[in-house]
Amino acid sequence: MPAEPGVAAGDVPPGTGEAAGRAREDGPADRDAAASRAPGPAIGRTRGADADPAPGAPPDMPPDMSPDPWARLRRATNARIGLGRSGDTMPLRHVLEFQLAHARARDAVHAALDLDALAAALAPAGLPVLRARSAAADRATYLRRPDLGRRLAPGERDALPAAGQELAFVIADGLSAAAVQRHAAPVLLACLERLPGIGVAPVVLATQGRVALGDEIGERLGARLVVVLIGERPGLSVAESLGAYVTFAPRAGRRDSERNCVSNIHDGGGLPHAVAAERIAWLAREALRRGLTGVGLKDDRALVGDTDQAARIEGR
Amino acid sequence: MGYAWTLGGERHRFDDLRALLAAASPRRSGDELAGLAAASEAARIAARYALADLPLRRFLDEALVPYEADEVTRLILDTHDAAAFAPVAHLTVGGFRDWLLSYDADAAALAALAPGLTPEMAAAVSKLMRNQDLIAVARKCRVVTAFRSTIGLPGRLATRLQPNHPSDDPRGIAAAVLDGLLCGSGDAVIGVNPATDSVPNGIALLEMLDALRAQYDIPTQTCVLTHVTNSLAMMERGAPVDLVFQSVAGTEAANAGFGVSLAVLREAEAAALSLGRGTAGRNVMYFETGQGAALSAEAHHGVDQQTVEARAYAVCRAFRPLLVNTVVGFIGPEYLYDGKQIIRAGLEDHFCGKLLGVPMGCDVCYTNHAEADGDDMDVLMTALTVAGCNFLIAVPGADDVMLGYQSLSFHDILTLRATLGVRPAPEFESWLARMEMLDARGRLRELAPQSPQLARLLPYAADAG
């Protein structure tokens, strides 16, 4: 069977960060499938070819000699199309692929932030690094009580200094500590490079935090502007996506419509670090210059996202 | 007025009717978030005893959301059919539960009763029912609607084919439509959630879907799930709108959060009817709902999330919809924490909708931050099919790559048909047969890539857009 390029390309959904991971992890499942079904690079995806020929199928052409008719279509979508069937159900390979993607997303939701490693990664910034906890004591509480994730735990507020700088960065785990671990430090460093001459408060690492936790922290720090870098709700295709929320004059009770958002920062077809930092830095400079964030700021530039994404990050 | 019940010497008090209903609800995170949940497990059961004792007609005398402040309350009370209510008017909520499960409550009796019930009555009695009761009674209810296909007939399970794409790529959407059709899905509607919610984009998607439907003469309807005002604008510009979609909730304030009112829904239904596109029937509206919507809009008026959800069905039924579904696990764990809560909510929503005469379906689904997985969905889809659910939503491989959550797969629908013997809508089943996609036993053939059936459909998807 020819290793048809179209099949190979189509076998992995294009443009998703998960694609490479899936391909890597496919090894064992591939072998299972190969043992029980037809050989070839398109196992599972061309389940039709492995099946008993349907009545009416041309009998003169062995099924496994045909090109994968889904290959062209797969280039147009990363949806799980053309999976084939085992009776009425999905072939095992695709069941396991799906379970793996879900497992990765679940791991990302429940993983704890490694604060020491994150602080070390932030060292080149040359800024003090502080820690803060939300009022949600643990992950289970965090998931049930979004209101607690938006407030500091008792006593945490007093532990933060009134730094009185222009800009504060808050890094919060949100719904994907993995995304924060991977992207927050490089994005923050790239932002600082693009914001020369702006006074920056100590960086606060917040655990069990939601976007609005940055309001209370920014207010306490006395910053004119707060940038919250936070893990977005993991999807099956991308479990490590970072969001950035920019809020002028942070204080408890700010509404989502008073923020600007740069979302989908990840290396699986999302925003690269440098591009994200460019957008965040633009927002920060404009917010400080004009004294506002939110709907009044977003109209100026099509590239800047709006806070509809908040629903995704907050999991509403 | 307040309510109380004494259990083992302990007096449990409930401040008012809303508090009593909330406390009687099975545990769920949304009511805990709202501060409405029972104070203890024993208090929950005390509330159920007190609720069982409550005359059903109390819900006609005492509005949970003030009549003056809320057009949904006005709709519910102003359109209440006292004659239809008469057969159960003498019952308590507990007595009503027993009657619903009795042999007297057959399909005809339940259909006649529906206009006499308010959503609050349906929600109240559901709180006294176990999951098996919700299934058994819903199974007796029949709500049949039609546009080009007929939905809700006994022994049938229809599907919404949901071919979403992260950037609305027409070829990507067409590929997912093809995938679903080849698995025999799409008889309730081929309905896409657009990534970009604009009128020109909506028209482009509608024209693409309508051309596909027309080319293969598929007896189904298409829908772009955009805001009702966008659908009105699309109809003004002559776009081929089969169904008008809208998300709705159970209070005027929550609907305002969605940017809709009863007046705009009325206008939209009239506009869609004037197009005369249905061949089998004239149901032109499609609504989605879901527990937690009102609370997340801070518009729940202190009413528990299941009761306020049931009020959304009063909004739906006023517009004779073809399809209504609860998007049960989409909202997240702060409203429905885990598989147990999602399963319960799905059965409650289906039961309440059917009891009120709404053509109820379900998006059996979950997000990655909920304590749920595919096994929970297997249980809910099976239970809902046994309960006679009108339709379920399905996406390629159970993975919605645009909305970032997991629904059912087209395969899941085949499994339900095989294990429970349910069939597609009759018009669609005939089409599948005409397309030579069914085998001699009526099962969906697994088509080889070079089969003529597949070859007929593939070029369309490859050329779309």
UniProtKB/TrEMBL annotation, chain B:
Q: Keywords, A to Z?
A: Bacterial microcompartment, Cobalamin, Cobalt, Lyase
Q: Which Gene3D superfamilies match?
A: Aldolase class I, ethanolamine ammonia-lyase heavy chain domain like, lyase
A single Pfam family it belongs to is EutB
Any single Gene Ontology cellular-component annotation = ethanolamine ammonia-lyase complex
The Gene Ontology biological process annotation of the record reads: amino acid metabolic process; ethanolamine catabolic process
State the Gene Ontology terms under molecular function: cobalamin binding; ethanolamine ammonia-lyase activity
Q: Which residues bind substrate?
A: 160-162, 193, 288, 363
Catalytic activity, reaction form: ethanolamine = acetaldehyde + NH4(+)
Which cofactor names does the annotation list?
adenosylcob(III)alamin
Which InterPro entries has this protein been placed in?
A: Aldolase_TIM, EutB, EutB_dom_2_sf, EutB_N_sf
Name the domain of life this protein comes from: Bacteria
Cofactor annotation comment: Binds between the large and small subunits.
Which EC number(s) does the record attach to this protein?
Answer: 4.3.1.7
- Binding-site positions, adenosylcob(III)alamin: 194, 246, 296, 402
Report the pathway entry.
Amine and polyamine degradation; ethanolamine degradation
What compartments host this protein? Bacterial microcompartment
Which protein family is it in?
Answer: Belongs to the EutB family.
Q: Which PANTHER family match?
A: ETHANOLAMINE AMMONIA-LYASE HEAVY CHAIN (PTHR39329), ETHANOLAMINE AMMONIA-LYASE LARGE SUBUNIT (PTHR39329:SF1)
Query: How does this chain assemble?
Result: The basic unit is a heterodimer which dimerizes to form tetramers. The heterotetramers trimerize; 6 large subunits form a core ring with 6 small subunits projecting outwards.
**Function statement:** Catalyzes the deamination of various vicinal amino-alcohols to oxo compounds. Allows this organism to utilize ethanolamine as the sole source of nitrogen and carbon in the presence of vitamin B12.
Tell me which NCBIfam families the record gives.
Answer: PRK15067.1 (NF011649)
> What name does the UniProt record give this protein?
Ethanolamine ammonia-lyase large subunit
